[in-house]
Amino acid sequence: MSTKIHNFANLRCPWGQTRSELLQNFHDHEWGKITLNDRYLYEMLVLQLFQSGLNWPVVLNKRENLRKAFKDFDPRAVAKFSASDVERLMNDQTIIRNRSKIEAAIKNARAILTVERNYGSFVKFIQETIPVQVVHHPEIFEDVPTSSDLSKQLARRMKKYDFFMVGPVIVYSYLQTIGLINDHVDCCPFKFEG
């Protein structure tokens, strides 16, 4: 049985109530805020993959190093990475060294280029499934789902284009991150601002 407390006036989402300036800025100004351009979408996909199994503070602390490692998150540049680039990144102590995630980031850059050839942009591909922002109204963060019919649908479409590590849970979290799903709790002052 869940007890809901309704007097949270103007409190951030629980995970945004932190001493980490990086995490707080991410919560306040990026998470749940629509930013639709292909390079940013690729950046967030890479960060989401690296965050899987870890947490946002770890990834955000490595964000600038990941930006350098993945050529300013340019999918055209990353799509050209070879096996020697994978080994180079596996030896880069400034990033999260996980071979599966590094390889997925490269494969996903290639998949984005395929999508761009077919749809004109990665944005158009995603918006074919989710044309406008979906706003949920959770009272407490425990009310936020981990997947949805939309994330399952988009995950299936992405897999058809050979995206890797894009199950419904990761895709749902990705959609939250790029702002196509807004799951800020209703009392959070950054639900629609920031």
UniProtKB/TrEMBL annotation:
Recorded GO molecular functions are: hydrolase activity, acting on glycosyl bonds
Superkingdom as given in the UniProt entry = Bacteria
Q: InterPro entries under this entry?
A: Adenine_glyco (IPR005019), DNA-3mA_glycosylase (IPR052891), DNA_glycosylase (IPR011257)
Check the UniProt entry and state the signal peptide residues, or none. none
Identify the keywords attached in UniProt to this record, alphabetized: Glycosidase, Hydrolase, Membrane, Transmembrane, Transmembrane helix
Transmembrane portions of the chain: 161-181
Q: What is this protein called?
A: DNA-3-methyladenine glycosidase
Q: Which organism is it from?
A: Lactobacillus gigeriorum DSM 23908 = CRBIP 24.85
Upper classification of the organism? Bacteria, Bacillati, Bacillota, Bacilli, Lactobacillales
